[in-house]
Amino acid sequence: EVQLVESGGGLVQPGGSLTLSCTASGFRLRDWAMSWVRQAPGKGLEWVSFISWNGDRAFYAESLKGRFTISRDNAKNTLFLQIQVLKPEDTAEYYCAKLGPPGEFDYWGQGTQVTVSS
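-> C-alpha cells emitted (118 positions)
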C-alpha cells in the first residue's frame, strides 16, 4: 500500500523557519518525481515545488523562490521542504504528492499544518 506521511508542521513566528518531511512507503521513492502542494485556509490548492527522481532538477512557484528548498533522500525514502523567512501568508496545510506515470499526482499525504503567527 502506497503511503505518504508528512511531518514537521507547527506554529512558527514570522521570520522563522521549518523543515517539513514526507516519508514514503509502499513504493520506491527513487523511481518517482515528487511535489509539494499547499492549501491555505479558504483557498484552493497551490503547487509549491517539484523535484525530479534523482534530485537534479527542482522547480518552485515563482512567488516562493528563494525561501523554499525542496530536497530528497532516496535512501531514506524521504522528501523534504525547507521554508525560511516564514510569512503569515505561508499558513497552510502542506501536502507531498507523488507524480504518477501520466504526469499527474496519483498519491497524496494527509498533510501537515503550518501556521505562521506572532
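The first strand starts at residue 3 and ends at 7.
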